[in-house]
């Protein structure tokens, strides 16, 4: 609060007090005026269970109040609201010094006893009611937020527009002190929300994986590692298809690849024959156990099936294997 010798705005404290006293009287006059409008509107149209109903051969409530509003130069909503507040506050329960705005807010309290008792008791430590005090009683948003929750509610109300909310969130998260108070799981959710767009997600992921610690932790996750490996294979396949489709030297490269594949196949057969030639003589005068024989026979079956597969691929160009062969090569 300003010291006694400090000005309040452009006036001295004593002049300020004079202005306050004068305006309180104006507010009281305004409250009395609003209640007068409400009382007279109630006189013309007492409260009904259904205000829109039209009495037999008479006017509806809206028609009557619209006529009254036009005759006194006010809006229908102003007259109707004054009538409603007056109905909620009979004359014997109206208190001097309480603004009409407070009466209008507290009128939303359904319990009459609670409503009539409350208006006589301003909030603790305050000599009179304010509109914000009345709003706090009902849990409504206040114009001048004081508590942490009131400030949070005010920010939410101002950021209902999605674009505004996005800008505010971005600006706040750039403040280190704010970011430090956000829980880890909440930060993850924020990042997920901002990276719903595939292009944004790809850019962010690329930047993050350039950080060694982040890349190490990410690759420790089996699913993430599998997805990266799958992406690498898929990228390679797409690059190869694009090259074969667009490059003028693709036919020559394909021919070379076929030659390399031929040489790889011949080398594989030669390696198998050479390895068998070294291993089989070592069995001379040695009797394998039953389990050892079973294992060798299983592998011979795989080799025999693989040789049939190779022979069919060489003769027909078809490299697909049937389910039985695939299961056998998997050891099933």
At a glance:
The chain is built from 16 helices and no strands. With 332 residues, it is an all-alpha fold. Among the domains are: 13-140, no CATH class; 288-332.
Beta content comes to under 5%
How many beta-strand runs? Answer: 0
Count of runs of 4 or more consecutive helical residues: 16
Helix percentage: 55-70%
Radius of gyration: 43 Å
Largest sheet: none
The N- and C-terminal alpha carbons lie at a distance of: 86 Å
SSE order, one letter for each helix or strand: HHHHHHHHHHHHHHHH
Give the CA-based shape.
elongated
Mean pLDDT: 80
Uncertain parts: none
Could you characterize what this model shows?
- The protein is an all-alpha fold.
- Among the domains are: 13-140, no CATH class; 288-332.
- Helix content is 68%, strand content 0%.
- It contains 16 helices and no strands.
- It has helices at 13-44, 61-72, 76-88, 100-106, 112-118, 131-138, 148-158, 162-173, 176-180, 184-194, 198-209, 212-219, 222-246, 250-279, 290-316, 323-329.
- The protein is elongated.
- The two termini are 86 Å apart.
- 8% of the residues are buried.
- The model has no long low-confidence stretch (mean pLDDT 80).
